[in-house]
Amino acid sequence: MERNPQRPSPSPAADPERAAAVAAIAARMEGAAARFLAEAAEVQRAVAAGEAPRVARVAAFVADRLRHGATLYTCGNGGSAADAQHVAAELAGKFFRVRPGLAALALTTNSSALTAIANDFSFDEVFVRQLEGLARPGDVLMLFTTSGRSPNVRLAAEWARAHGVATVALVGEPGRAWAAGCDHAFVVPSDVTPHIQQGHITLAHAFCALVEAELFPEAAAGAPGRGAP
Predict the structure, then answer these.
(1) In the prediction, which pLDDT does 3 show?
(2) Neighbour tally for 197: CB within 10 Å
(3) What string of H, E and C letters represents the secondary structure of 164-207?
(4) What is the pLDDT of residues 23-49, one digit of tens each?
(5) Which DSSP helix (H) or strand (E) runs through 139?
(6) Whole-angstrom Cα distance, residue 170 to residue 54?
(7) Angle at Cα 71 formed by Cα 112 and Cα 84, nearest 5°?
(8) pLDDT digits over 64-101, tens only?
(9) In this structure, are residues 85 and 77 in contact, taking their beta carbons and an 8 Å threshold?
């Protein structure tokens, strides 16, 4: 495979003409940056205005399930895979409070399982086959998909519904119709993928904070040497 011709070898950045060119590019980008941030903030305001009751309901529901021995599984693709892992990490580790770990597992992190299933069966099955071996009735599956069209996420949701595993979907406007078939659904009011993902992680952080506070009300927030990311 040939080297990408648009990726030359690095060179020092001390050239004054080059520095001036970079400054001119930054000035030209400023308006686009302001527009992007304003649009993102508007979506976040809409999420904050409309989703607090649903966040509380889902957090109470999942906290109850975890309290009684359930496991929360999460899944998604690409940036949504990162969001799925983020939620599982916050609950298995800690969000604000130093406390015992919670049973939360991302189905996106076992590279051997993902590649074996994709190679031997289909990428559509990378989540559902893990659920077949791990999930039990009463568990919860949290599904991240901006579009609602990801076949592997949809197949996992179908399996969960058929086997007594509750489903929580986080989608954007393009996924609204599909998400309506899940037990709980958060729909970020946007069709722009990055804005949807920003809404998802805001909702997920609020969810984690509420679940943790409900299950460990006496736990201290942070601890010497352990509070910094």
Answers:
(1) 67
(2) 22
(3) CCEEEEEEEHHHHHHHCCCCEEEEECCCCHHHHHHHHHHHHHHH
(4) 999 999 999 999 999 999 999 999 999
(5) none
(6) 12
(7) 55
(8) 999 999 999 999 999 999 999 999 999 999 999 999 99
(9) no
CB 72 within 8 A of CB 139: yes
Map tokens 């910094």 to a residue: 228
Q: At what angle do helices 79-92 and 193-215 cross, to 10 degrees?
A: 10
pLDDT reported for residue 220: 79
User: How long a stretch of residues is the chain?
Assistant: 229
- Enter the pTM of the model: 0.90
d(CA 16, CA 150): 48
Q: What is the pLDDT of residue 15?
A: 82
Judge contact between 198 and 41, C-beta under 8 A.
no
Three-state DSSP class for residue 140: strand
In this prediction, residue 1 carries a pLDDT of 61
C-alpha triplet 209, 143, 87: angle, nearest 5° = 30
Two tokens, residue 89: 């990490």
Topology given in CATH for the domain delimited by 40-215: Rossmann fold (3.40.50)
Rounded alpha-carbon distances, angstroms, from residue 167 to 10, 57, 75, 91, 161? 48, 13, 11, 17, 7
Do the strands 140-144 and 184-188 form a parallel or antiparallel pair, or are they unpaired? unpaired
